[in-house]
Amino acid sequence: MSPTEGGEIRHERTGLVFRPGLEGVPATQSSICDIDGQKGLLSYRGYPVDVLASHCSFLETTYLLIWGELPNPQQLRDFEQEVQMHRRVSFRVRDMMKCFPSDGHPMDALQSSAASLGLFYSRRAIDDPQYIYDAVVRLIAKIPTMVAAFQLIRKGQDPIQPRDDLAYSANFLYMLMEREPDPLASRIFDRCLILHAEHSLNASTFSARVTASTLTDPYAVVASAVGTLAGPLHGGANEDVLAMLDEIGTADRAADYLDAAIASKRKVMGFGHREYRVKDPRAVILQALAEELFARFGHDEMYDVARALEAAAERRLGPKGIFPNVDFYSGLVYRKLGIPRDLFTPVFAIARVAGWLAHWREQLGANRIFRPSQIYTGCSMRQWSPLEDRLPSAST
Ligand code: SDX
Fold first, then answer.
1. Whether residues 62 and 184 fall in one domain
2. Cα 353 vs. chain centroid, distance in angstroms?
3. Which of 4, 176, 296, 341 counts the most CB atoms within 10 A of its CB?
4. Which whole number is the average pLDDT over 253-259?
5. Do 358 and 226 fall within a single domain?
6. What number of CA atoms fall less than 13 Å from residue 324's CA on the CB side?
7. Which residues form the catalytic set?
8. In angstroms, what is the span from residue 270 Cα to ligand 1's centroid?
9. Whole-angstrom distance, CA of residue 225 vs CA of residue 298
10. Residue 79 has pLDDT above 70, yes or no
11. Whose alpha carbon is nearest atom 23 of ligand 1?
């Protein structure tokens, strides 16, 4: 084994090259999302994300991501209506959720609930366009209902039913908070969903594509992606950012916190990205959305801590290309909207289902099962010995 430049490892016998984390290794071709990490540009199907977030709804963006074109008014009305009709989840799913531990993490509840949909819609006809359409509608419609249902169930309450007169985002906030949301809050939440809907071959989308490539059902595809999104290096970071800001406490302590984190090689949550060498364009928009909310509903002192940390990080980490990512400001927006902290990542999942399903569909369009190679680093052939002759091994 010989290490080469950039952390690559070349296997001498086979000549294979291993790049940890598959950095810079294209694993698919895709026409869904493009990132220019040097310039900080992000587009879905060729449309800049800031334009979509300003002018479209989340469902309109979902349609674009999955079917490749923006819908016309009739197509959007039909899609919205179908999604609205499928928002309810079976009482059996709700009853199953009532058996979950109330102190379990909502991402685990979501992963289990998403997987359970495969039991109810067990026909697997992934070459049938109607099956694909129905699965898309069901997943987009039911994931928010399941997130809100677990929130009420764990508080010992019965979930409340979706309201047909409310649009997608307003209905989610209503099911979660049990009151009709302010229109500005709903619109800002909808924009957050657009910003989180897709991001090329991130870890959870890669996981979704690998699962899709086995031709399993879309509920398993989404469940595997939810499990991947949950980790603190990925979507789970949005929850950890607030814990970190809490720990820092006040803006004047941010620089010392950062110095200590760097000195002890701890990752600063909400910073850094494999693709971006500048501030994540989504973080720029989310920060503006947070400010819009503070202007309307009152300031949050945690924002001062976040800004002080960003300023200190710009000096210390900026030269290495480490800047705030999507998870840095999203939690401050969700907190102001009244969303509980451990629902931040499930909310990310509500949005990202759109991207996962777009990739599911694309994967099926030109499928070949993912089956990469490895570089074996274990023992060469060894002599087997009978049980009674074996000595305790050093590793146990
Ligand atoms: C998301 O991929 C996507 O698109 C994901 C996402 C999406 O929309 O799907 O954008 C959503 O997952 C955002 C990322 C959320 N995670 C965090 O905020 C956790 C903190 N960030 C990091 O752990 C890290 O930056 C990653 C996981 C995001 C990226 O990891 P990489 O590309 O493997 O980079 P690395 O860990 O190998 O770091 C490279 C260098 C190291 O320094 P050296 O050893 O070379 O000196 O940068 C340093 C790291 O120590 N570094 C950091 C840092 N991130 C990288 N140092 C301090 N704090 C950080 N946050």
1. yes
2. 8
3. 176
4. 98
5. yes
6. 22
7. 273, 327
8. 8
9. 36
10. yes
11. 233
